[in-house]
Amino acid sequence: MTDQQHSAATFLSARRRAFAVVMAIELWERFGYYGMQAVLTVFMVAQLHMRDHDVNLMQGGLGFLIYSLPVLGGILGDQGLGTRRTMLMGAFGLMAGYGLLAMSLDHQAVFLPALTLIALSNGLFKPNAGTLVRRIYAGDGTALDAAFTLYYMAINVGSTVSMLLMPWLQQRYGAAVAFLACAGGLLVGLGYYAVRGGRMRRFLAGRAVEAVKRHGPTVMPVPWMERLSGPVQKGGLGVGILLAVLLVWVFCTWVLYSPALVRLCIILAGVGLILLWVWLYLRAKESERPGLLLAYILCAQTMAYQIFYQQMQTSLTLFAMRDVSGVYQLGPYRLFTMTAGQFQALNPIAVMLFSPVLAWLYRRSASRGHDAPPAAKILCGYALVGLAFLIWWLAAGHSTGLVSPWVMVAGYGTMSLGELLTIGLGLAIVARYAPARVSAVLMGALFLLWGIGMYLGSLVADLASVPADGGGSLAGYVALFRGLFLGCVGLCAVLAVLLPYTRRLGQKHREQMVKKPVTVT
User: Fold this and answer.
1) Cβ contacts of 164 within 8 Å, gap of 6 or more
2) What's the rounded Cα separation, in Å, for the pair 96 and 179?
3) Digits of tens for pLDDT over the chain (521 positions)?
């Protein structure tokens, strides 16, 4: 082996080890987060004795915070503490939040602060973990695609295992044990980081030095913490940032305490988002406007999926808790059982099963010159979502007892395939059609849009609210699922009418790109 080959092999080995550290902590972070999500709705209804109305609104407010706070985490990672420190702060905050949830059954005053701490910590963790992956594989697009594929699989593996495990722990040992297990997952991830994280830090430091030599000192933003020289200055800045984060936590808790404040924040966010889109469109070059307008339309279309997705954590979980049998049978044979929270695991399982099939179909269609535009894929996705709610509507409407759990498999499987065709395209839409100079802004705006969609989904789920004793619940779910099916049919009709217009915009965008190819710097 030549020196050059040895150097390349050493570099690839170091890169794999650095990526393994990020992927491991991401897997355990998703293990804790999705485990908490699978337990939370049942915990609020069965242990805290909250009304459906309060559960739905709180889930909507929490979803909005979870999707909007990563903007703060990204800014803090890029310009404040740095990517790695901000990610670790988020991991420790998540672990503390799950611990507070475990205490909330006996001390309900800490319940809302625990939820907002989890939302804030998720906002600190998520954007910075992804940024570390991009930095590890910077300059190697093919390897980056493969790395993000593995990264996405780690998310689904962690979420599937936890969504099956945590509801079982909740049923067998109590919700406190399940929440502590979520915190334990973060502890395992942080322990692995403590042992192996040094290799990742050294690798990233070497890459930063190499980037500065090649491109100069302005190749990437330098966080404030790194600009300071001296422990006193750094310590003062660190304390100031920590106090600011604590103030954000207090503010988010105050907002979540008041449904009226949540609505006000949603309205302000919606108005701000529209103004941002208008401002960016007016400032855009004439050649950029077709792609930008198409990105707006398609992002708004993907946002509608969140209204349906939010049913998984609200109405579908409550439906499963009250009106669905957990016993899977094949003829006279009893196979296994699932609890209400465990049904949510059907979503990531279906996503993992369908993703490679869908990717193969995309490649095959493209090779034959028949690649469908994103608008057509989104339309097909909503047709599948509508089919899922048709399945639930018919099953609930014709049930004389508990609904078969196989209905949940069929519904979740169909809806998850629809997810891959709708919200799964969201990030790709921004990357494909938005001007590169504003893609980061529009990516943050997309997450904010999805957060608004989750809140709207909770309002829709609230239409099926039932009394605390669950009396007459099935009729409410029948009406809700019927309404969601009909709403999806109407949405598909609107998307079909818009399809010729979005095709023309796509054609104009392609023509402009041919005239002026995009250069990557």
Assistant:
1) 342, 345
2) 10
3) 566 665 666 777 777 777 778 788 888 888 999 999 999 999 999 889 898 888 888 999 999 999 888 888 877 876 667 778 888 899 999 999 999 999 998 888 999 999 999 999 998 888 777 777 777 776 665 565 556 666 666 777 888 999 999 999 999 999 999 999 999 999 998 888 888 777 677 766 665 545 545 545 544 555 555 555 555 555 556 677 788 889 999 999 999 988 899 999 999 999 998 998 999 899 888 888 888 898 899 888 888 999 999 999 889 999 999 899 989 988 888 988 999 999 999 998 998 888 888 877 877 776 777 777 888 888 999 999 999 999 999 999 888 889 999 999 999 999 999 988 888 777 677 777 877 777 767 877 888 898 999 999 999 988 877 655 545 578 889 999 999 999 999 999 999 999 999 889 888 888 877 765 444 43
**In sequence order, what are the beta bridge partners of 337?**
327
* Helices and strands (H and E) in the chain: how many: 18, 2
CA distance 50 to 136: 45
- 35 with 162: CB under 8 angstroms? yes
Torsion of CA 190, 194, 199, 203, to 10 degrees: 60
What letter represents residue 258's amino acid? S
Write the DSSP assignment of 220-233 as a string of letters: SPPPHHHH--SHHH
Tokens of 384: 């599948």
Count CB atoms within 10 A of the CB of residue 227. 10
| Token pair in block for residue 322 | 């009250």
Q: CA-CA-CA-CA torsion for 270, 275, 276, 282, nearest 10 degrees?
A: 150
Identify the residue whose tokens are 């009893």: 334
Check: CB of residue 299 under 8 Å from CB of residue 430: yes
Among 302, 308, 282, 309, residue whose Cα is nearest residue 293: 282
Q: Could you give the CA distance from residue 45 to residue 455 in angstroms, rounded to a whole number?
A: 19
Say which DSSP state 79 is in: I
DSSP element (H, E) containing 337: strand 333-337
| Alpha carbons 212 and 83: distance in angstroms, whole number | 18
- C-alpha 180/C-alpha 227 separation (Å) is 38
CB 432 within 8 A of CB 375: no
What's CA 385's distance to the chain center, in Å? 18
What DSSP designation does 314 have? T
Q: Measured between alpha carbons, how far is 247 from 202 in angstroms, rounded to an integer?
A: 33
